[in-house]
């Protein structure tokens, strides 16, 4: 429940924190959020009470949304062009290490010093970042926007009415939702169907996380290749891996084969996620905080809806059904990407025509 509360508050908060950051700046919001996050973490560790835990996890979710959205917007504030693509791609790769490192670090801390040590660790980390931010950082926002309801709502409305932006949100949510879907289904399949231990499931999840990070690294290496050339290749590979998972589940399903095919799936999914996410962070540079918040919050909501819908629709209990669910998910992504590409090309052509007309005049 505490994890659910954290994700819900973090996801919903990101929808609104962007507007706050675009109006009041990134620097002081980040400092205050780090300080409050440290306070919440130490409170959980020092005063173990289930209701305090729930409340402080909500506080952590809100403060994390301020920190993460602020740092996404920071790159847009400071960089542009190829440098912006480089750093946003790197940001996604680093962000994707979380599902790899967190369970292992947390597990070791708990086994050695008890569960409270996880929150001491988070609190100390926040204090260290607070000091580093205080010493080395500063305000990156150049143009402050008035904090008024109508202009803010107009910006949100404009972004959501921009078709390539709205479609891309669902693409991001779908790619991430397929990853979460595996995380929800794999314990049952590996432990109940194939009769392996939770340790085996842990290593399977670890390899899944490595695959996502690998996909992001490949996307960064191919950063100069146009979207319309590299994403279709990744989509085809996801389809092939999904079909192999479905067919092999019928004939000779086992944990090792399922994990190997999942590595291929999540490498391709991580690739697509990195490409589209990097495109998004630079899409509305004048309202970088709002765009970053809307992207993060919208992605969380879309991925949650897609993931839970797929799990409940298919009732995933075997490798075969997991493959079928993946095929359904990737077909949705393909349809969305075709529409996304169409509207993106319309926008680029319109912008080129405007530039040409200006030059001619």
TrEMBL record:
<feature type="transmembrane region" description="Helical">
    <location>
        <begin position="28"/>
        <end position="54"/>
    </location>
</feature>
<dbReference type="Pfam" id="PF07690">
    <property type="entry name" value="MFS_1"/>
</dbReference>
<keyword id="KW-0812">Transmembrane</keyword>
<feature type="transmembrane region" description="Helical">
    <location>
        <begin position="119"/>
        <end position="136"/>
    </location>
</feature>
<dbReference type="InterPro" id="IPR036259">
    <property type="entry name" value="MFS_trans_sf"/>
</dbReference>
<feature type="transmembrane region" description="Helical">
    <location>
        <begin position="256"/>
        <end position="280"/>
    </location>
</feature>
<feature type="transmembrane region" description="Helical">
    <location>
        <begin position="292"/>
        <end position="315"/>
    </location>
</feature>
<dbReference type="InterPro" id="IPR011701">
    <property type="entry name" value="MFS"/>
</dbReference>
<feature type="transmembrane region" description="Helical">
    <location>
        <begin position="165"/>
        <end position="190"/>
    </location>
</feature>
<feature type="domain" description="Major facilitator superfamily (MFS) profile">
    <location>
        <begin position="1"/>
        <end position="341"/>
    </location>
</feature>
<protein>
    <submittedName>
        <fullName>MFS transporter</fullName>
    </submittedName>
</protein>
<keyword id="KW-1133">Transmembrane helix</keyword>
<feature type="transmembrane region" description="Helical">
    <location>
        <begin position="90"/>
        <end position="113"/>
    </location>
</feature>
<feature type="transmembrane region" description="Helical">
    <location>
        <begin position="321"/>
        <end position="340"/>
    </location>
</feature>
<feature type="transmembrane region" description="Helical">
    <location>
        <begin position="202"/>
        <end position="219"/>
    </location>
</feature>
<feature type="transmembrane region" description="Helical">
    <location>
        <begin position="231"/>
        <end position="250"/>
    </location>
</feature>
<dbReference type="InterPro" id="IPR020846">
    <property type="entry name" value="MFS_dom"/>
</dbReference>
<keyword id="KW-0472">Membrane</keyword>
<keyword id="KW-0813">Transport</keyword>
């Amino acid at each position: 429940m505490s994890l659910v509360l954290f994700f819900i508050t973090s996801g919903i908060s990101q929808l609104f924190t962007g507007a706050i950051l675009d109006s009041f700046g990134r620097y002081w919001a980040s400092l205050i959020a780090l300080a409050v996050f440290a306070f919440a973490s130490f409170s959980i560790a020092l005063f173990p009470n289930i209701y305090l835990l729930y409340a402080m996890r909500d506080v952590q979710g809100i403060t994390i949304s301020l920190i993460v959205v602020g740092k996404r917007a920071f790159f847009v504030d400071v960089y542009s062009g190829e440098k912006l693509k480089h750093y946003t791609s790197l940001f996604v790769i680093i962000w994707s290490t979380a599902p790899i490192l967190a369970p292992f670090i947390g597990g070791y801390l708990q086994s050695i010093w008890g569960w409270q040590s996880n929150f001491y660790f988070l609190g100390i980390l926040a204090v260290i970042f607070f000091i580093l931010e205080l010493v080395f950082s500063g305000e990156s926002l150049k143009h402050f926007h008035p904090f008024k309801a109508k202009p803010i709502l107009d910006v949100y409305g404009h972004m959501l009415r921009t078709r390539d932006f709205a479609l891309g949100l669902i693409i991001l949510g779908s790619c991430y939702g397929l990853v979460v879907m595996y995380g929800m289904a794999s314990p049952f399949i590996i432990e109940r169907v194939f009769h392996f231990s939770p340790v085996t499931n842990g290593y399977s999840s670890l390899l899944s996380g490595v695959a996502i990070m690998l996909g992001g690294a490949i996307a960064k290496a191919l950063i100069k290749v146009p979207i319309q050339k590299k994403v279709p290749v990744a989509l085809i590979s996801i389809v092939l891996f999904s079909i192999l998972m479905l067919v092999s589940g019928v004939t000779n399903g086992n944990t090792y084969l399922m994990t190997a095919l999942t590595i291929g799936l999540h490498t391709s999914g991580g690739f697509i996620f990195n490409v589209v996410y990097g495109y998004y962070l630079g899409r509305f540079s004048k309202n970088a905080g709002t765009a970053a918040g809307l992207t993060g919050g919208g992605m969380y909501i879309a991925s949650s809806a897609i993931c839970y819908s797929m799990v409940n629709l298919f009732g995933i209990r075997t490798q075969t059904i997991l493959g079928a669910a993946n095929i359904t998910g990737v077909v949705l992504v393909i349809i969305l990407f075709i529409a996304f590409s169409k509207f993106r090309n319309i926008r680029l052509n319109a912008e080129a025509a405007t530039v040409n007309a200006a030059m001619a005049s």
